[in-house]
Amino acid sequence: MADSIYIGYTFKVEPLQPGTEILIAELGFSGFESFVETSDGVIAYIHKEDWNDRILDEVNILKSEEFKITYTFEEIAQTNWNAEWEKNFHPIVVEGRCAIRAPFHEPFDVEYDIVIEPKMSFGTGHHETTHMMIQYILASDFTNKSVLDMGCGTGVLAILAEKKGATYLEAIDIDNWCYLNSLENVSRNGCHHINVLEGDATILQGKRFDVIIANINRNILLNDLSTYDTCLNEKGALFLSGFYDSDCELIKSSCNQLNLKLEKTLTRNNWVALKFVK
Q1: CATH 3.30.160: does it fit domain 6-85?
Q2: How far apart are CA 150 and CA 239, in angstroms?
Q3: CB-based contacts of 52: which residues, under 8 Å, 6+ apart?
Q4: CATH of domain 89-277
Q5: pLDDT digits (tens, 9 = 90+) for 199-249
Q6: 99 with 112: CB under 8 angstroms?
């Protein structure tokens, strides 16, 4: 991001999870565009020109009796966002095989070394759901497979799937920032088989895939499951995440109605990732 004047909000959240996750999602809808998670909450930033004194009116979690959230805010002038990002983004390694790092980190001596410039997009591997999806991809055969990464965020999952041998991939996100960021990351990692598209499930009509990866929130998944089923080839795999363990039965029930069979479950800090086969 270019240097600019921002308003920074420092939130303290109890309980920390899932409070922080919900808060970040709602702040994003309200126009906040950068977040740094802290030990007791999150710091959120918004351009001063996009700010008004009622910016938090539609952030419903602040009105919830389930969470105790306090905050302060201040004007922050001429922040060096690149320096802030470098200070707060740390590389991760999943199962000793896949490293996800920023361009300013040294390369890792691992099987899959992925370079991501996340900017505002979701999908650095740090979040539980992305981490579990990476685990699934590492454990699966993608040789010559066609793959859909739905809600691709940074494009990291599609990038890993290509590195594992997938020969045709589509990475789709409804958010323009994610679309542009995925294009950059696909190029940065030397991928040549990923077609990045901007849109939602309505652009999937007539398409078929061997593997579908969808790391999105519960309501969107439930709405789009029948579309995924139509697009999934026989014996294909469907990887779903983006929801809590309390949502599992609802997801499983909807998949069962489509004759999608549950094959494996991963959990991580109350988040869940499910693998179904057709």
Answers
A1: no
A2: 10
A3: none
A4: 3.40.50.150
A5: 999 999 999 999 999 998 888 899 999 999 999 999 999 999 988 888 899
A6: yes
